[in-house]
Design a protein that fits this description.
CATH architecture of the largest domain: Alpha-Beta Barrel
Number of strands: 20
Largest sheet: 8 strands, mixed
Helix content: 25-40%
Structural class: alpha/beta
CATH topology of the largest domain: TIM Barrel
Low-confidence stretches: none
Number of helices: 11
Strand content: 25-35%
Shape: globular
CATH superfamily of the largest domain: Metal-dependent hydrolases
CATH class of the largest domain: Alpha Beta
Mean pLDDT: 94
Radius of gyration: 21 Å
Length: 380
Amino acid sequence: MKILIKNGTLCTMTENKIEKGDILIEGGKIAAIGSEIQDPAAQVIDACGLYVMPGLIDAHSHIGLFDFNNEYTVDDANEMTDPVTIAVDARYGVNPKAREFRASYEHGITTLLITPGSGDVFCGLPFALKTYGNNVFDMTLKAPCAVKIALGGNPKNTYGDRKQLPMTRMGVAHVLKETFRKAKEYLDKKERKEDVDYDANMEALGLALKGEVPCKVHCTQYDMLTAIEVCKEYGVHFSLEHAWGATDYMDEIVESGCDICYGPIATYRSPGERRKIDVEAVKELDQRGVNVALITDSPILSEQSLYHHIGEAVREGLPQERALRMVTVNAAKVLGVADRIGTLEVGKDADIILVRGRLGLDTDAKVEYTLIDGNIVYKR
């Protein structure tokens, strides 16, 4: 079925902003963008008075793994049987019927990166999925998207309570470095065609060492320095996840060439990792050329809190368009799917939202339509 969106203000997240334009959708893809497009066979959506933009992307979520849909909370996000569980695949823990998926697309979020939690040092394999569907594997956009790593308090608390390695930040760093060393040795032996026993964890980390996926590293404060040092030593691309306290280490972050997934912003301050939530960091990081995505950590925070994240970044002086890039094209780059989503361009997936009002600026801004793969999945 063809759909023709007419007369909208097109926020393409490219260099072009079209004040009054049309988008033709065919076969789940964007077929044409311009003015005065005509197609008698298409279903027409009148977007007069609406902003038309790419579907939003939350680059760090646990929806369906932390399942709040029962009388008790289900935690399928954290394996926590060993500090190194790299090969566990998050797809097999997700409940596709979690109500948060519907809340996501009703608020214009069309893609999520679903990641294991941070209870281990090496936590598993995140993946990207579209938010509408019945089957996780049909909804999957890319798997895996990364290798998830966690530093700091989370793995310390898991294993410190058991009085086993790692109980300290020293211990966490030791597990991190030693596992990278073993994985590189494993790959080197395979390259030399030596006999090696198959190791699922080493194979999984090998994806990062070979540059096929990045590492997503949960870290804040000075743990960011550990992440930067070890990832640089082994030549892996990486993102710093949460990244509270980034203002203290701007030069190191910029020099490393990493991505930043910043947030959640609307969370409480407390001793330890949350003691410095420095929203102002996103503006300076963006100005210095770092690829920054804003994240909610949902369902820890609600999906619609992504709007609040946009607004907080704007309040700190970031132009709205730059803030919107952090939940569209920048996030798509983090997920490794910018060839398919994140901007409105011919040939890309027709993941499109029509919004009344300015997201992040107007408190009454509302999504009127959400389209995923060219299908209208939500109409207000």
